[in-house]
Design a protein that fits this description.
alpha+beta, four-stranded antiparallel β-sheet, 5 helices
Amino acid sequence: MTLDATDRAILNRMQDDLPLISHPYAAVAEELGLSEYDLLARLARMKEDRVITRFGPFFDAAAMGGAFCLCAMAVPAEKFETVLTKVNAHPEVAHNYERTHRLNMWFVLATETPEGIEAAADAIERETGTQVLRFPKLQEFFIGFRVAA
């Protein structure tokens, strides 16, 4: 799928805060010179085409008493899809990416409590038979994402 200039503008705008009003998509659409229907239809199409895989709020689990942890696994190529399905079945898993490296599966765990990280990672290890390496967050970084025009 090829992104046009409007798709790119939508992706860039949606990285920022939505207005806290009763019709936030209408306000964003107006900023972009679109109708609310067109904005929502384009977002739905991009999600359906897997340009975006998730659209929704990002909660700071640590600020709410929870925890984040970056995790990695070395998954044999022939088992990758099976392990991926098992890992992604856990609601604590976000941002699961395949990498071309010995550690070829990387994901983030976000849990309600710091102890939840260990419980979720241990469960994934039991279910997949593969070690989950855990890299707890030591410092917060924000990396803005923008699509080039």
